[in-house]
Structures are given as C-alpha cells and as structure tokens.
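Reply to dn_fold:

You asked what the input looked like. This is it:
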Amino acid sequence: MSTRIVAGVDSSTQSTKVLLVDAEDGSVLATGRAGHRVTGPAGARESDPEQWWDALREALAGTGMAGEVAAVAVAGQQHGLVTLDAAGRPVRPAILWNDVRAAGPATRLVAALGPAQWAKRAGTVPVASLTAAKWAWLREHEPEHAAATAAIRLPHDYLTQRLTGRPATDRGDASGTGWFGTGAGRYDETILGLPELRLDPARLPPVLAPDVPAGVVTPAAAADLELPAGALVGAGTGDNMAAALGLGLRPGEPVLSLGTSGTVYTVSARPPADPTGTVAGFADAAGRYLPLACTLNCTQAVDRLATLLGLGRDDVEPGGEVVVLPFLDGERTPNLPLAAGLVTGLRHGTTPGQVLRAGYEGAAYALLRALAEVLAQAGAPAGEPGPLVLVGGGARGAAWRDTVRRLSGRPVLVPDATELVALGAAVQAAWCLTGTPPDQLTAAWATRRGRLWEPLPLDRPALDRIAATLRRATPLLTQP
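and this is what came back:
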C-alpha cells in the first residue's frame, strides 16, 4: 500500500517550516524552511502576509515531495491582525503578536467591561498582544485602513484561505483574538459591539470543529505551490495549540516553550477564566482548553544579552548577586508593555558570565511564576510534581535546561521532536485524512519520546533576589 503523506506547516514569527510526515507511523519524510522579515521601530512589529505565502511556496519546494501530499494543515503565530480588502488582498502589513503599540487600547478595552467580565466572556483579559487590542489601535490611528478592511484574519487563517479559497478558522486560534467566547464556543457580539471595536462578525471567518477540514487545495493554489489539487486542508490552529496536539498533551501536564516568546501551558477539561489576566483562557485544537501564560522576552532577549557581553549562549558562571530583568521589548507577563531591560546588583567582582546567567534566570522566572496560576486554572491536582515538558529552541541549550531545573526544582523532559508546531499541524492533517483521533496518532507516532533530565536543588536565593527586584522595580518599569 502506498504511503499517505501529510504536510504540517508552522508559519511562525521568523520563518515557515514544513514537515512531510507518513500518516501511518509519523516518520518525517522531508522538511523545508524559509525565512520571514519582521519590520517596525519603537514597539512596532509587522510583516507582509504575502511573504508568508512566498515562504510556504519555498519551504514546500525544499521538501522535494510537495506533489505527493494528501492533506495539509497550517499552524501559525497567534494574535496577529491581518486586514483584507474586498478582493482578499492585504490592506496593510499584518500587525504581529509582539507589537506593543496597542497597550493603551487594551487598557481601555479592559475598562469597558471590567476584568471579570472579560475573563468570563472571552477567557482572556485584553493586553497589547491580543487581536482585539490591535484592531482598536488600527481604528484609532489608521482609520482609513480600518475603513478599507472587508475581512479580518489571523495569520494561519490567511494561509488556509489562500489554500482553499474559503474563509475558515478553528476555536484554538480564535480564542486568542479577545472577541471569541472560549466557553460558549462562538464570537461574542457584546465584545464585538464595544465602541472601541465596532466589528461586524461577518468580517470574521467561520469557526470549524476540530476534526472538520477547511476544504481542499484549489487548482490555483496547487499550481502555485506544486501541491496536488484536491488535497485536504485542515482547519489549522495557533502555534501553541498545535504543539500541544503534537505532544498528545494530557490534562495537567505542564509545558514550557522556549522560543522567541516563552510560554507555559497545559490542557484542561474546563474553560479557564483568570480575571487577573495572567492566564489566557484559550481553547485547544482537540475540543478542550489550553490555559496559557506568555512572555515576550525569552531566547531572543537572552541571546541579545550574550551578544552585548561578547559571550556564547552557554558561557554562564555561578556566583554573584546580579539580577537581570530582560524585558527588552516590553513585557506581557508580568504586564509591563512599556518596560525596558534592567540590570541591578553589579559589583567590581561581577563577571560577564554571571550577568548572562542572571539573564537566563530573569527570563525563566517570569515563566515559572505563572506556572502555578496556569495549573490552578486547569484544576490540576496537587501532589508530587512530575516533569516539565521543555520544548522550543531553548530546550536544546544546557543553560536553559539547567536554569529551569534550578528555579523549579523539577525534572524536565525534552522531546526528541524539534518542530512540534509543524508536527502538531501534521497530526491535524492526518486526523482529517484518516479519521484517527489525535491521541491515537500521537501514541502511534511516539511523539513524546525524549530525554528526561533529573531536577537540580532549588535555588532559593536566586528566586528571592529576582522576586524582590521585580517588586521594587515595577513602578519604574511602568513608566515610558
């Protein structure tokens, strides 16, 4: 019997990755990759959606097997605002998740309903990264572009629509917009009708059930991408939802994803609703929920610090009392969108390696501090803590692994699979193609295979230093 091949696409902030996978056993048959450009000064982060399509074409070509794909699904960076005109062309560059210009509109949106109502209705209290805040910013600052917008899409929606010729999204990525009711499973018309938004739901794509295909590859898309016309296209999802799907994540199992951004999340059977705004109450890609906390500054910020110090990524040294809060691009958790990086505790004897180690600690601390809230929102049972599942590029670095183990006191499991977002998209494509539920697919594909690293003694002095510094510095970090 011939191999049925599925394509999983990860359209991230910096690049597009494609995995071609055997739908039977999960073996990766081919890979492809192409880069993206991100532009924008002073807190702006934008990309032309057309380049995502160009990158998809290049990444598929790099596999050398695009013509054999039977089904494809796209996972994309969350929250991005893609505005399309009546002909389906971008009105302006997409505003990305890590664009912090919408901090003011986010504050006004929160005030319009109150944090408790936002948590109840949308599962998430607005911050600058959410799509709703970006749309409010666009209406305020670029009304001519808002008026020209006939349709609003998320990044993965845009690519899915280009593939099928039809609008569609999924509940996972939709739950990161701020105007989708995670618990209710539909767009919230009260939120859409707020004066800051004034958004007709007809401009938004229909939300598909997790196992329902968005359509098939059109002849035009097939000719452009060299995919087979008529190949199935999954609904797609957000990047974190895809990673959870690829891992076959079970309720209460915590994941730390160390990439451009840092995230902690788990799967939950109940819809989260955190009025503090720390935990985003997302849906997952399999009909459940995905409480999640996100930071803006993770591997990229620490890499930048290493470059400034003239060090390699793992050139850390123990000792000293320096604290680094690496909030180079503002921060989402804690919610300090106007913050800059801060270094304190320098002495004559402080070494560059100690400063770099403190940078890792500051980035990891922000994630680990949110972990307890994520697990509480999921209703995770108390007891002996199991391993943290460590994914993303940072999981391959010794300094990241050691820092997480020191500051959590827990073991970490690093899966062998390195492209979990694309792998999760491939799981969704295989689900659509074969009808096999995702938990059975991930078991057959052994996506959880990896190495377990034992815990290190809890570094309480480091935790106390960071906590005290953040408490004292917060009033300063809230100032522009």
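The longest strand covers residues 15-22.
Hope that clears it up.
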